[in-house]
Amino acid sequence: MENRTKIVTIQRHIMEQQALLPTATGDFTLLLWDLVLAFKMISREVNRAGLAAILGPAGHENVQGEEVTKLDDFAQSRIFEQMDHGGHLCCMASEEADGLIPIPERFPKGKYVLLFDPLDGSSNVDVNASLGTIFSIHRKRTPGVDGSVEDCLQRGSEQVAAGYAVYGSSTMLVYTAGRGVHGFTLDPSLGEFLLSHENIRIPRRGKSYSVNEGNERNWDEGTRRYVNYLKEKDKATNRPYALRYIGTLVADFHRILLKGGIFLYPPDCSDPAKPKPKLRLLYEVSPMAIIAEQAGGAATTGRERVLDVQPTDIHQRVAIALGSPEDVREYEDFVQGRRP
Ligand code: AHG
Ligand code: MN
Ligand code: MN
């Protein structure tokens, strides 16, 4: 009897974590519960996407000029419709929506802001590779009932919670609410996320790197030298590192969170006067950065801690390197010229 496994659902875990805070009202707990249900619905749809003939492009582009898939649309409306009426949010913002997403007039407003990437890894939709959803939650900081753009443009260090669902060989949900990082696996027969990875700690150093190396010719000099260094032979530092790249940030980061290593998306420097980063700060990079730090890892733009970057635009893009702390520090040494 003593050795029996204690089964903890995500609902119970969230509730117990919040109960540790003397000021908690239960509002935040209910907000996360609503989100969890949206993730279950997206997971179900992703799993049967081939059967439901939902694969393929939706036939229009999003605000950023990228082709939208039907699953992007599905995930966007699932989350919006699940989160618009609970009374916990004052506004939302998403990769798939132009500006701020207001809470409809007829519903009560709350004190939190939700930023999300409804479907991460869209280019993998048609090939049955892992996809994900990313979220970030901030507290409203402007006066008044309605949320504003300013409420969305907060530093990553001010996130109240962040996390992602990864729709892989099983569906997992990983989140932090500022007390470590916890992972849950969806048991489809129960329809419940069960605690499978308590208090995840990222290894101090890894053995692999993750980057779209096809872009090498457009990288900055520091990144190019760093990646070449990873391919040199050195027993003490496990080099050469292995290259692992799926092209879904959530899936690439999830592997690094569990196994260690570094994920990079450096800016396109083909015009050195105008470096162009790709990944979005508010709903892709910041949530991953706080999870990395909460697990003992690090996240940098190359020059600055990601969580310290002051956002100026909802869809702002930023350079990113994140993962094991020793790997990330080494990358910064190369980019900042401390390593020749
Ligand atoms: P999204 O599908 O939400 O637009 O995000 C795609 C992102 C991210 O998931 C991934 O890390 C990166 O784009 C892949 O980019 P490349 O295809 O340029 O490597
Ligand atoms: Mn994405
Ligand atoms: Mn997306």
Sequence-ordered SSE layout with sheet pairings:
Layout: H1 10-19, H2 27-47, E1 57-61, E2 67-69, H3 70-83, E3 89-94, E4 101-102, E5 112-120, E6 131-139, H4 149-152, E7 161-167, E8 171-176, E9 181-187, E10 192-197, E11 208-210, H5 221-230, E12 242-243, H6 249-259, E13 262-265, H7 281-294, E14 298-300, E15 320-323, H8 325-335
Parallel strand pairs: 3-5, 11-12, 11-13
Antiparallel strand pairs: 1-2, 3-4, 5-6, 6-7, 7-8, 8-9, 9-10, 13-15, 14-15
Helix pairs in contact: 1-2, 2-3, 5-8
2,5-anhydro-1,6-di-O-phosphono-D-glucitol is lined by residues 66, 95, 117, 120-123, 212, 247-249, 278.
CATH H level, superfamily name of the largest domain: Fructose-1,6-Bisphosphatase, subunit A, domain 1
| Span of the ends, CA to CA | 59 Å
Helix/strand-derived category reads alpha+beta
| Shape call | globular
Largest sheet: 8 strands, mixed
Sheet-strand content, in percent, reads 15-25%
Residue runs with pLDDT of under 50 for 5 or more positions: none
CATH class group of the largest domain: Alpha Beta
Rg over C-alpha atoms, rounded to the nearest angstrom: 20 Å
Bound molecules: 2,5-anhydro-1,6-di-O-phosphono-D-glucitol, manganese (II) ion
Mean pLDDT: 94
Number of strands: 15
Order of helices and strands: HHEEHEEEEHEEEEEHEHEHEEH
